[in-house]
Amino acid sequence: MTRQQRTLPGDDVPVVLAAQGTHGPVVYAISAEAVRRGVSVGARVVDVQAIHPDLHVENADAAGDVALLDRVALWARRWCPWTVRDGDNGILMDVTGAAHLFGGEAKMLRDIGTRFAMQGLAVRLALAPTRGAAQMLARFGGGGVICGPDDVEVAIAPLPVAALRINADTDRLLQRLGLKTLGKLMEVPRVALMRRFDRMAAEVNPLVLLDRALGRAGDPLNAPEEVAQWMARVRLPEPVIDPVPHLEGLAGDLCRQLAKAELGARRLRLTIYRVDGEWRSRDVALASASREVAHLIRLLAGKLEGIDPGFGFDLLTLEARSVEPLALHQDHLDGQRDAGRDVAALLDRLCAKLGPEKVTWSAWVQSHIPERVETRVPASAGVIEPPLDVMRARPLRLLDPPEEIVVLYAVPEGPPARFRWRRVSYLMTRFEGPERVAPEWWRDKPGTRLRDYYKVEVGGGRRFWLFREGILGDGRGSDPRWFLQGIYA
Amino acid sequence: MQSDSPLGQVVALSKKRLVQDVPKPDGGEALLRDVLSGTPFDAAVTGFVLACLPQSEAPILWASDRMSRRENGRLYGPALRAMGIKAPVLHVEVSNPRDVLWAMEEGAACAGLSAVVGEIHGAPEVLSFTATKRLALRSEASGVPLWLIRSGDPGALSAARERWRVSSLPSDMHPWNSAAPGQAVWEADLFRARGQAPGVWEVRYEPDAKRPEDRFRLLSRSGDGQVAQDDAPAADVAGR
Lengths: 489, 240
Fold this sequence. Notes:
The complex is a heterodimer.
Chain A: E1 2-3, E2 15-21, E3 24-30, H1 32-37, H2 45-51, E4 56-59, H3 62-75, E5 82-86, E6 90-94, H4 105-118, E7 121-122, E8 126-127, H5 131-140, E9 145-146, H6 152-156, H7 168-176, H8 182-187, H9 190-197, H10 206-214, E10 230-240, H11 244-260, E11 263-274, E12 279-290, H12 293-303, E13 313-325, H13 339-354, E14 359-364, H14 370-373, E15 374-378, E16 397-404, E17 406-409, E18 418-421, E19 424-437, E20 451-458, E21 463-469, E22 481-488
Parallel strand pairs in A: 2-4, 8-9
Antiparallel strand pairs in A: 1-7, 2-3, 5-6, 10-13, 11-12, 11-13, 14-15, 16-22, 17-18, 18-19, 19-20, 20-21, 21-22
Chain B: E1 2-5, E2 8-11, E3 32-37, H1 44-52, E4 60-64, H2 66-72, E5 74-75, E6 89-93, H3 97-108, E7 115-121, H4 129-142, E8 146-151, E9 162-169, E10 185-193, E11 199-205, E12 216-220
Parallel strand pairs in B: 3-8, 3-9, 4-6, 4-7, 7-8
Antiparallel strand pairs in B: 1-2, 9-10, 10-11, 11-12
Helix pairs in contact in B: 3-4
């Protein structure tokens, strides 16, 4: 299956997807034109480019392909209830008892092909009584094969043994033995094959795989459970402009669904579908799982200001995109609410209005450089570190970055006796220090100077935290400069 | 009052208390309090507010606008423990005063917080008498104490129930090093209050003091030798 590229060049240009190999990028997937020109998967991209200068290279996104395939596999449940992704390039569908709904197997295959083509996806289809046979026929048997229950042996006989999904060593061994097609393999007496392959794991054992393909061994389909969708929707008879009056109904409906499953929403998306075919959505994240109608309405109402209704909309959906278990909860008997839940609700409101990066808790870093000790973590992440115990008195306010001061009257030892900061000159009356903080050589640039910190009291009583950057003659620049970094209470 | 003795004149002091001493402003009481900075770039205001906050493990909401962070620096977390703050601080660092006021109002409605502190620099238009009145009513309704730190304020109107002006004083003598600054001393001027007489005090805050009553000490700043005659507040030194 190939995904349609948005910026695809013309059909006469070979296109390859490149993935990182051990020695630079290698070809990961190729287009039809590249196949025609003889490009092979696994070749190095630079070599192919040398041979075909007009080659168009795109980066492969293997994880994205798998994610897409998972979604497509769920979408394919429109034809039958059991579907699963097959490896990283196929979908298996168990259509037992479903084909008649579409007017027979041939019509169903045609429908599947058409619907995938409408999505911009090219598919090769095969229908067979067993899973193994369908896998083989789809990949090696050409497109649109329908194989009846009695024709499996005939249908798969001309296919190469590699179609069994055996590993490369087994494939080479069978090729050397002259067993190039499955028909030849089936002709070999079973006892001989058993003797040779009985120690091999079932997933790569050619005999087991062949048995499964022929229906002699069971091979059930293990379909993943469908992801539950928590969604409430309102269809309106007439287009309207204002979504606010419908929020209560939507939130109430969603919360009832969540309450029934004992879940709480962590992320919500409100979408309006406009009459001109466009849609607009707003996302809300919650600090802790919640299914309180009033809380959700309050969060959403703050987000709706800039939403553009166009000429009106006639469908609204409210979807819980991420849910967490949330058991039923009882308030205190005296009517008081749980303080922790109150704070979580407050965090939600603050984050929703101001942005998650503006609402933070403190986190501590093992460092002696004052401005590096404290970092901020988003409050919605929910990790609260206890206050840091420091050995030395630290200023209550920290200027970030430190501000340079002008030394008016320097003394040989200790901080300047008179200095100017923010256009005001100060006379030092008392000081304490120095406290020397060495640069962190494992992190700082070479040439970073050490700092000597002084707590300085000026006339009138204010207490500042000064430092001198470097010492005279340390070989890391000219005369050391003085900075003011903090203000003590 | 006076009697003669061979050694000279003896002055008998009044039996009354030296001056009316004000108990620690009870940080747990749900009020809106304004704290103004007496001098620019002075962390005494921050220290005074932290000293008055209730001793609780519940988080403190600390909202500040960009100007106050730029003028006075940001609140430095590692210093909080030494100020006796055990509660985590939820920082809300926004750019304009309107968001600070909004965050304070939201915080005032949340009973899970132990206190809400807001910092606003200057006198922006949004910080009007009406806005402070809103905050004051919110706080009294919900029971969360609100503190508003206003630096660089020319003295605008405010509906705060207590208004303080705090500045640094020269610190006490250091016990071991005469050249070093010692225990911090602040001058706290309660210039407007409801149900309480205004006054000026010298404040010392020692969160590690052995006796609880020694932790926060307010000393009246009376003039030299001036003794109060009754429970009336002493005249302000500065004559305000």
